[in-house]
User: Which sequence fits this backbone?
């Protein structure tokens, strides 16, 4: 960039004469000023180009890694598992808790119904704990929509306006939000995706906790909550038995594994 500019100047520049003593005296000055000015101009243009390129690259990088906001509904707060994902770093960006969701939790906590009251209080405790741990990332949004009555409809509208990701355990809300092209995360979907994969003929140990629908059947559960139906397991309630997988049934509610004890055919 700092190539001497006089290499680019007219070769006969030094032979110029003005037949004037004053002007001829300025010719040596031209030899210094013109090349120097030309070099400084090229340097300035080079720096401008480099800085502009770096700003452009920085903008691309920022846009590329910026995490989208996450809006949490009442069911996800009460469930509480999203908070563990956030603590472990699987969820990035700000967590948006709408004020109308907090109000709904308060309404549940004040309910005369014991189950609703327990869920509401659990949700408020979970929310307060998360807010104290991450005060800069948990944001209470004051947005409200007087023309909208249902909390679910308000959530969809807010998520659409903020272009945020919604986290919910509500299956129906998930389907409605997806109709509006809102990205929805359901912790149950994640749990199902991470469940161990079993194949027919594989041996697993499971504790029989109760009898099944059929007199000869026993029912147990894996550590991830997957139900296991055990043929001839009805007489082994309370025992941990070695079983062989015979069939796997995938349903909308989850997965069921059918087993038989030992090597029974």
Assistant:
């Amino acid at each position: 960039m700092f190539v001497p500019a006089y290499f680019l100047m007219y070769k006969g520049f030094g032979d110029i004469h003005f037949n004037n003593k004053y002007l001829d005296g300025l010719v040596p000055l031209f030899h210094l000023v013109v090349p120097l000015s030309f070099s400084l101009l090229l340097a300035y243009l080079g720096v401008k180009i480099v800085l502009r390129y770096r700003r452009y690259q920085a903008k691309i990088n920022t846009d590329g890694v910026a995490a989208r906001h996450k809006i949490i509904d009442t069911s996800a707060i009460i469930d509480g598992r999203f908070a563990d994902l956030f603590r472990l770093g699987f969820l990035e960006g700000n967590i948006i808790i709408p004020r109308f969701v907090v109000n709904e939790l308060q309404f549940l906590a004040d309910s005369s119904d014991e189950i609703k009251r327990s869920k509401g209080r659990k949700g408020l405790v979970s929310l307060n704990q998360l807010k104290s741990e991450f005060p800069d990332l948990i944001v209470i949004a004051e947005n409200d929509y007087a023309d909208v009555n249902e909390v679910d409809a308000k959530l969809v509208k807010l998520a659409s306006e903020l272009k945020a990701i919604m986290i919910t355990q509500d299956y129906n809300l998930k389907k409605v939000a997806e109709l509006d092209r809102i990205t929805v995360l359901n912790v149950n979907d994640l749990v199902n995706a991470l469940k161990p994969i079993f194949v027919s003929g594989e041996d697993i140990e499971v504790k029989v906790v109760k009898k099944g629908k059929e007199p000869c059947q026993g029912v147990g559960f894996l550590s991830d909550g997957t139900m296991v139906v055990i043929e001839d397991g009805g007489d082994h309630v309370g025992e941990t038995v070695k079983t062989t997988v015979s069939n796997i049934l995938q349903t909308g509610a989850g997965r069921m594994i059918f087993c038989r004890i030992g090597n029974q055919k």
